[in-house]
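#onboarding

Welcome to the new folks! Below is a worked example of what a typical request in this channel looks like: someone posts a single protein sequence, and someone else replies with the predicted structure as tokens. Don't worry about understanding the tokens yet, we'll cover that in week two.

Example request:
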Amino acid sequence: QVQLVESGGGLVQAGGSLRLSCAASGSSLTYYTMGWFRQAPGKEREFVAAISRSGGSIYYADSVKGRFTVSRENAKNTVYLQMNSLKPEDTAVYYCAAYSGGFGPTSQHRSQYDYWGQGTQVTVSS
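Example response:
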């Protein structure tokens, strides 16, 4: 079983950047497909990005494509989400998640994921 802890959230002005980290413990991340999701107040949790176990395959939500980059360092048991050109509508609690299965279209579905972090708040001011 893997435990996930996010960090790196905060308050940033529109157009700014943040890098989120998701540190894993209890198991090697090499066994897991990883995802990032976000939840704004009053809205459902939505998919942001997913990365395969090797890092060779990635999905992005259309709303973040070209602005966000997901990556992983399996040797450090850590996954990252680099967020550039942030907009007020990116304001949300960001969660990383993991499941021990193969990468594919269902990697974009939150129901696929078995393990979740506690989330980190990202606030983008206009």
